[in-house]
């Protein structure tokens, strides 16, 4: 694939009525480790026109704040030859004051930050109880997890979820307007995409192949225990990658040991580390996996399937349409 043979098209819809089709650059970041997906849009200096409700609208002699406001919804679609894919949906979190104009955006988590702070003590509860209490009007899908006694002390939903994400190794993300909460240690890839060296991988790709013998991995697992000291277990060797896992509450020591050893085996396998640079397609998302193949090695010892823990999408004059997928650990096929 060569981006020079494709016509890149972009459509940004703001507040459901304003449409922008010309930009200087777009950068979208999506990550399992980060709490919200973000986007940054830089409009060109000569930006003077947009479409409002289908009609061309001039912004000459107008303040951009007459047309665009913080909190407005934003939808970013992009693709080739009229086939556009939804790359980001959320809200405008900040509007720059300089020229060129920069719009900073966040996904649905932006709305959670705006919810009022609350206080409540649960004598005994599950994760579902907490999410339902904080977000009674949202559709949710929450992993079953007992939290025991739990106290919310003058905190917003965003602040509570941020703490739970860190303490319990959870992944909070929105699919459309539905909040999904799952355990990172049980994460199953959403979709599988194919990448082949020499076919749909850019030369700028930054990948390094390491053998299992050359890799050093140390896994540390901690689980808080109700009414007891936390349980800690480490497995592997020092001097290389260090993986810290916050396991769920009251996890048994044997299960913690098994978790650490399984994570070690996943990280220790021969395989690639780094980032794949691709084009608009395949439309890889964080939480997906990629099948990576290298025809230069007929014995297929370098082929493998990998979890994708983050994706960065770049749209600009230099990169064209670049999708960067950062690989996590190697998966069983």
Task: Report on this structure.
Helices cover 12% and strands 49% of the residues. It is mainly beta and 333 residues long. It folds into 3 domains: 3-108, Roll (Phage tail proteins - horseshoe like beta roll fold), CATH 2.30.300; 115-186, Phage tail protein beta-alpha-beta fold; 192-331, no CATH class. A hairpin with a 2-residue loop joins strand 17 and strand 18.
Decide which structural class fits the backbone.
Answer: mainly beta
The ordered string of helix (H) and strand (E) elements is EEEEEEEEEHEHEEHEEEEEEEHEEEE
Quantity of strands, as a count: 23
Give the tally of structural domains: 3
For the largest beta-sheet, the strand count, sense and barrel status come to: 15 strands, mixed
Q: Outline the low-pLDDT stretches.
A: none
Radius of gyration: 23 Å
Keywords:
single chain; 333 residues; mainly beta; Phage tail proteins - horseshoe like beta roll fold; Phage tail protein beta-alpha-beta fold; 15-stranded mixed beta sheet; 4 helices; 23 strands
Summarize the SSE layout with pairings.
Blueprint: E1 8-14, E2 18-20, E3 25-31, E4 38-42, E5 49-52, E6 55-58, E7 73-80, E8 83-95, E9 102-106, H1 109-113, E10 118-126, H2 127-134, E11 140-142, E12 146-155, H3 157-168, E13 170-175, E14 178-183, E15 192-196, E16 206-210, E17 217-225, E18 228-236, E19 241-246, H4 253-268, E20 271-278, E21 289-293, E22 304-316, E23 320-331
Parallel strand pairs: 11-14, 15-21, 17-19
Antiparallel strand pairs: 1-2, 1-7, 2-5, 3-4, 3-22, 4-9, 5-6, 7-8, 8-9, 10-12, 13-14, 16-20, 17-18, 20-23, 21-22, 22-23
């Amino acid at each position: 694939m060569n981006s020079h043979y494709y016509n890149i098209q972009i459509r940004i819809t703001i507040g459901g009525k304003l449409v922008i089709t010309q930009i200087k650059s777009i950068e979208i970041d999506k990550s399992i480790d980060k709490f919200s997906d973000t986007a940054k849009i830089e409009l060109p200096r000569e930006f003077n026109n947009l479409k409002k409700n289908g009609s061309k609208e001039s912004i000459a002699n107008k303040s951009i704040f007459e047309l665009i406001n913080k909190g407005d919804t934003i939808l970013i679609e992009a693709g080739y030859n009229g086939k556009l894919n939804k790359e980001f949906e959320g809200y405008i979190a900040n509007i720059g004051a300089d020229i060129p104009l920069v719009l900073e955006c966040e996904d649905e988590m932006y709305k959670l930050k705006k919810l009022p702070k609350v206080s409540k003590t649960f004598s005994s509860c599950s994760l579902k109880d907490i999410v339902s209490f904080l977000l009674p009007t949202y559709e949710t899908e929450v992993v079953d997890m007992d939290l025991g006694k739990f106290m919310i002390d003058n905190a917003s939903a965003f602040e509570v979820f941020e703490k739970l994400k860190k303490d319990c190794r959870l992944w909070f993300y929105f699919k459309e307007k539905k909040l999904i909460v799952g355990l990172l240690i049980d994460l199953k890839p959403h979709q599988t995409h194919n990448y082949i060296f020499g076919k749909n991988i850019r030369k700028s790709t930054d990948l390094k192949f390491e053998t299992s013998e050359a890799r050093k991995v140390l896994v540390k697992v901690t689980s808080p225990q109700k009414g007891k000291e936390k349980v800690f277990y480490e497995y592997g060797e020092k001097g290389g990658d260090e993986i810290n896992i916050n396991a769920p509450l009251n996890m048994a020591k044997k299960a913690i040991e098994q978790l650490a050893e399984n994570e070690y085996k996943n990280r220790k396998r021969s395989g690639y580390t780094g980032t794949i640079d691709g084009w608009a397609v395949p439309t890889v998302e964080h939480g997906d996996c990629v099948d990576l193949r290298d025809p230069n090695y007929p014995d297929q010892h370098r082929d493998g399937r990998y979890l994708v823990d983050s994706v960065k999408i770049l749209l600009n004059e230099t990169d064209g349409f670049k999708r960067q997928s950062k690989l996590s650990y190697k998966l069983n096929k």
